[in-house]
Amino acid sequence: MAREIEADYEQVHLLPAALEDWVGPEHPARFVREFVRALDLTAMGFKRGAAGVEGRPGYAPELLLRLWLYGYVEKVRSSRKLERACREQMGFVWLCGNQAPDHNSLWRFWQANREALRAVFKKTVKVAVELNLIGFVLQALDGTKIEAVCSGRRVCDQAALRQLLEHLDQVVAAREAVLEEAARREDEEFLGREQPVLERDLMCAERVRAALTVVEAGESRHVHPGELEARRMESDGRNRFAYNAQAVVDHQQRIIVAAEVVNAPDDHGQLNALVEKAQANIGAKATRSTTLVDGGYANGRELQQAAQAGHDVLAPMPSGMLNPEQNPYHASCFRHDPERDVVVCPQGRLLPFRRLRAKPRLTVREYRSARICRGCPAQTLCTRDRHGRSIEIAPWDQAMQIHRRKMAQPLSSALLKMRSEIVEPVFGWIKAQWGFRRWTVRGLASVSTQWALVCSAANLRAIHRAWLNFA
């Protein structure tokens, strides 16, 4: 006769189970432990706290690092939730050896070792290289906007900040007057209760004043007093205070080989910095990789620098540049002859140099002649300006011409189509599957640390699958 099995809460074990038996050999917590064991935390800059500081036990950095890494792998990114998981979830209980560190110890470790925690990401890339999980052929670069921890609905332009600062100054002045009166009455109880409130208001006014300074300096039109380094940008279809998280992903196993966070709302100026980070993280073999980027990175300055540095980059060109049959008089169809210092138009006419023209952060050479354009059979198709067609040549014109010819090749177009298949699924996993749609820390340095941990967790998941095959 079959016997139903029920829990026996009075059962007592004669010999308790060994800690090593609490999780299976393929458990991801065991993999995280082995990964951390292979790291030299002292060389990486991790600080060892003194035991018993402020009455709390001094936990080893190895233990706390294991918990943070495993927490991000398991989508537990809060110090308080980590503390609770160390008491309730078997993987965490086993990983910390049933020690259950408190959330203050976890958070102080995070704050004291932000730079070292960012270095852990590089170690995940090195392990992926050793396991042959990186192909060294194609890598894709892209960015995603992630909302800052501060409120995004608050108006924080120059007028609103001035109004808020004026209100706070009035509040502070009134409170100081009340405290002065209490001091004359020697009302110690009232002073002890209201002095911290005054200090809070003063701190708030200083943050607003700092935000107003940034706006008046022209660095940004909107600055949040509680998050000075965040900027307004489109995040998940909404205009919010956010940061721009960048990642370079290898095509073979979608390993993230470089990661960075900036507060610029666009991707201009990020291309070469990220490619060089990827090369530094991967090693010498990274020079064989072709980097695929979208139109946000395709500006002449960056493409020229990439060509000079020897980076193989494929980026889309603006519409019309690669289809001269559809727009035969597009500016890209005019050829600059630097030896004669002229521009040759599609009709073969030579436009002479006219002047240097200053633009924001750039000076271009302008070529134009009403006499040359007069009587041209294609003048009405080329320009409506009675002074003739004007062509501006930037310092990186030659690099753009070379890149246009490269992108006109069928192989380049086919490779560029693979960009979204390589990098966008990684952002989809992070934001949709793992639920990371908002930063939980403030400031660019802390946000960069959190992004490094998120990317480390993404790499550890991929490495763990390979580790199971080798085990």
CATH architecture of the largest domain: 2-Layer Sandwich
The biggest sheet amounts to: 6 strands, mixed
Q: Shape, please?
A: flat
Q: At the fourth CATH level, what is the homologous superfamily of the largest domain?
A: Ribonuclease H-like superfamily/Ribonuclease H
User: What is the ordering of alpha helices and beta strands?
Assistant: HHHHHHHEHHEEEHEHEEEEEHHEHHHH
Please report the total strand number as a whole number: 11
CATH fold title of the largest domain: Nucleotidyltransferase, domain 5
- Unreliable segments (pLDDT under 50, ≥5 consecutive)? none
So what's the oligomer here?
single chain
What is the percent of helical residues? 40-55%
Radius of gyration: 30 Å
Structural class: alpha+beta
* Averaged pLDDT: 87
Number of helices: 17
Measured distance between first and last alpha carbons: 41 Å
Q: What is the total domain count?
A: 4
CATH class of the largest domain: Alpha Beta
Strand content of the residues, in percent? Answer: 5-15%
